[in-house]
Amino acid sequence: MCQIVYHPDYKKYNLGYTHPFNPIRVEMTLDLLNELGYSVKPLTPVSITPELLYGIHDPSYIEVVEKVSSGEILKEAENYGLGNPDNPIVKGMAEGARNQAGGTLFAAGLLLENKAKKVLQLGGGFHHAHRNSAAGFCLYNDIALAIKEMTKAGWHVVYLDLDVHHGDGVQEIFYSDDKVMTISLHESGEYLFPGTGWMHELGCGPGRSLKVNLPLEPFTEGDSYLDVLNGVAAPALAWFKPDAMVVQAGADAHFSDPLADLMLTTQDFERIYRRVLELAEQFCNGRALFTLGGGYSLTAVPRIWVILYLILSGYKVPDKIPQDFRKRWNERISQDIPEYFHDPEQAFKPVPRKEKIVKLNHEMIQRMMDTVAVYWF
Questions:
Q1: What is the average pLDDT across 30-58?
Q2: pLDDT mean over 73-82
Q3: Pick the catalytic residue: 7, 127, 128, 342?
Q4: Considering the entire predicted model, what is its pTM?
């Protein structure tokens, strides 16, 4: 079985009602699970102190975040990526971010103490937070904090980033670390924030060849996405032999997401999650920690994250969305929740350049494998 980690105080990380990174996404996910009859009884972590973040973030950055979060006005905050539309300054945001970081750290402890093999942390995934700056809706890098805890125990960890945006913050923090392999599948930085995640970003020093970036063409569909995952992740894990896998399960690669251009369906997400679990079983002793992350289509994200929960828990994905859930949330978000869990077969118009996109993604697999062959084989 999968252990679930969640605390209601995660909702304190709220950057505003109109901000895309809204706690309503997790609220909808939990409500849908409840409507389906799954009584989710999560383990409840505690918040962490700012000092516990010193191994991940510069103390000066943490000090500024904590001060502006308590209401102080600091002109230098803008130098740390704060006070802009992506990362507005909101009272209480530091505590909310520490709540979620504490949850991911707690989840890592469950793996380390052999209290679970699979853990789903219903929060976190703040992969854009850098050592000394906020970015991309992310304040404190909970993922890096959890991975650091694992490597302190002597584990080798593979970090798999499924978010449509490059996992730049996690990569940066472990760029020279030989105990951490990062694998990021994302829409190419040529078209999408944060503009990084190129194949030549391989790591440095002892971490050389352990930072694997797979920049996908815009409008990539599910079959091509899985080809890339299978073509690189399996040989990477076979060579690296990690003790555990940490997955950022952002849902923004869905075709309806307003902030990106990949074309995955809910069926594709189910296939991807099942394949990731197979990889964890085959190469990581079955140990896997999943966090949430991006995903900004309120009609898609709850379905995708419920699918993730069901797969991790060994349950079948149902056919229909409960009518009461649809009625309740249709009114609240002023959007139409789909009738079915899975998208229709013709969920979007045919992609004009599909053959070219598939070809370019396949060539990217070959170039990446050629690049790392000198290190891996």
A1: 95
A2: 96
A3: 128
A4: 0.98
Predicted pLDDT at 377: 84
Would you say 371 and 208 are in contact if contact means Cβ atoms under 8 Å apart? no
Residue 39's pLDDT is 85
Ordered domains of the chain (ranges, CATH): 2-376 (3.40.800.20)
**DSSP string covering 133-189:** B-BTTBSS-HHHHHHHHHHHTT--EEEEE-SSS--HHHHHHTTT-TTEEEEEEEE-T
**Active-site residue flag, 128:** yes
> What DSSP letter does each residue of 36-101 carry, written as one string?
TT-----B------GGGGTTTS-HHHHHHHHHHHTT---GGGGGGT-SSSSS---TTHHHHHHHHH
* CB-CB neighbours of 231 under 10 Å: 18
Contact 19, 134 (CB under 8 A): no
Residue 31 scores a pLDDT above 90:
yes
CB 316 within 8 A of CB 310: yes
- In angstroms, rounded to a whole number, what is the distance separating the alpha carbons of residues 122 and 81? 25
